[in-house]
Amino acid sequence: MATRKKPATRRAQRALHRDEEAAFLARTDDALADDARTARIMREFLRGFDQLRGLGPAVTVFGSARFGDGHEHYELARRTGQRLAEAGFTVITGGGPGVMEAANRGAREAGGVSIGCNIRLPHEQDPNPYVDRFIEFEYFFVRKVMLVKYSSAFVVMPGGLGTLDEAFEVATLVQTGKVRQFPLVTMGMSFWGGLLKHLDETIVGSGAASRGEIQLGLRTDSPEEAAAFIYANVPEPPAPRRRRPRSKARPARAPSRRRSR
Question: What's the predicted TM-score (pTM) here?
């Protein structure tokens, strides 16, 4: 198992990441630099395929890192992770704290497989102690592809801009027919109520989208209903899990820290 990097090494890595992200997003006429970056992106795709291939039916749970243990959104995500694992699904999150930790924790407590797919950011966060495997990505769009490709469904818990980004990304893919039979569940009705009202009344009311296009799948606060809906609507549902629960937190398998050259 790889050892954790020292703080100084982490700071240097974050600084390098900031430069890489700025270079990637900046307009450039340097063909050699663009070609080199394209090769690094390709290698990141290949590494993701290798890490996630053969995972089996999985559900990705999105949500904020800012709701801690004991918060109602944390507890909702924890119970949802439990129900998904009991139904036989692997549970995938961003691997960080808050709602992500809660869903991974629930999956582990139910004896399920718990995965963290993190994005490397300047304010790097360690994996929560409830993931069995922690995979780190440099580019947001590479991680998005991996999550859609290797997930059977998405659960959208209360969260911020990143959560909204992922939710509307997959809603657009469903709307345009790029993915099919991909259940999407929105949870935390009191949190999302204003947004859902805007979608229903303003977006649909103006004719910008039909009600079916922005339905966002199931809307519920019931982990049992969410798990049952997903199980009934995925192409190949898993066998219910019968393994003995594992409640003890332990460090995640450290991610590969190799950087593409």
Answer: 0.83
Distance CA 143, CA 163 (A): 13
Token pair of 35 as six digits: 């070609």
Describe the chain by its helix, strand, coil percentages, rounded to 5.
45, 10, 40
Computed over its alpha carbons, how large is the radius of gyration of the chain?
19
Residues 6+ apart with CB under 8 A from 251: 127, 129
Q: Are 104 and 133 in contact (CB under 8 A)?
A: no
Decide which of 3.40.50.450, 3.40.50.300, 3.30.70.260, 3.90.320.10 is the CATH code for 47-233. Answer: 3.40.50.450
Q: Tens-of-pLDDT digits for all 261 residues of the chain?
A: 434 444 455 455 555 555 566 677 777 778 888 888 899 999 999 999 999 999 999 999 999 999 999 999 999 999 999 999 999 999 999 999 999 999 999 999 999 999 999 988 776 577 899 999 999 998 889 999 999 999 999 999 999 999 999 999 988 998 888 988 899 999 999 999 999 999 999 999 999 998 888 777 899 999 999 999 999 999 989 988 765 555 556 555 555 444 444
Domain boundaries, the chain: 47-233
